[in-house]
Amino acid sequence: MLQRLATFTCAAAFAAIAIYISIVEQPSRLLMDDRSQLLQWASSYPPAMKIQGGLAILAGLSAIWIWFRSRNALWLIGALLILANWPYTLLMLNPINHALMTMASSASVETSRALVEQWGWLHAVRSLLGVIAAGLFAVALVRDVKTQPGAAIAAT
Predict the structure, then answer these.
(1) Which pairs from 108-115 meet CB under 8 Å and 24+ separation?
(2) Which of 48, 59, 119, 117 is closest to 84 using CA atoms?
(3) Which residues contact 148 (CB under 8 A, 6 or more apart)?
(4) Which residue in 43, 54, 146, 155 has a CA-CA distance of 20 to 30 Å to 28?
(5) Percentages (nearest 5) of helix, strand, coil residues in the chain
(6) Which PANTHER family match (predicted)?
(7) Distance CA 78, CA 59 (A)
């Protein structure tokens, strides 16, 4: 049961960070002038990428292991959703990430505002994937506790 709780916690942390970026950091960033906006994005993206990437992998792989042992489909569906952030990011966000990082290092801000705005909308999909995965893990966790009440006590 402890692994299930840790998996849910990783997914919830991923979702919380993604939501924070989408509803706090990105709107604040859009109020800045183009150069400041680009520099702020370039300084905040790398650490967020490392944290969120690790959380997605931990939650996803752990959920697959839980599904393999329990055959509760909610764990597998949640795993696929949280792990979908990786190919989604590589295919949809990485071209924009690369363009923005290149602009930030070259002091060129032409078209940066449009790219930062586009990045924000695409990042919102990551928030949605994280929220749905965490929600599925929460439901699966509650169901598992209901079907295995002794396991919850033994894990504490």
Answers:
(1) 109/34, 109/35, 109/38, 112/34, 112/37, 112/38, 113/34, 113/37
(2) 59
(3) 1
(4) 54
(5) 90, 0, 10
(6) DUF1772 DOMAIN-CONTAINING PROTEIN, YALI0E30327P
(7) 9
3-state DSSP of 37-59: HHHHHHHHHHHHHHHHHHHHHHH
Query: What letter represents residue 27's amino acid?
Result: P
For the residues of 1-49, what is the DSSP string, one character each?
-HHHHHHHHHHHHHHHHHHHIIIIIHHHHHTS-HHHHHHHHHHHHHHHH
Mean pLDDT, all residues of the chain: 93
The amino acid present at 96, given as its one-letter code, is I
pLDDT digits (tens, 9 = 90+) for 21-71: 999 999 999 999 999 999 999 999 999 999 999 999 999 999 999 999 999
Burial of 56 (0-12, 13-18, 19+ CB in 10 A): buried
- AA identity, residue 118: Q
- C-alpha 139/C-alpha 149 separation (Å) is 15
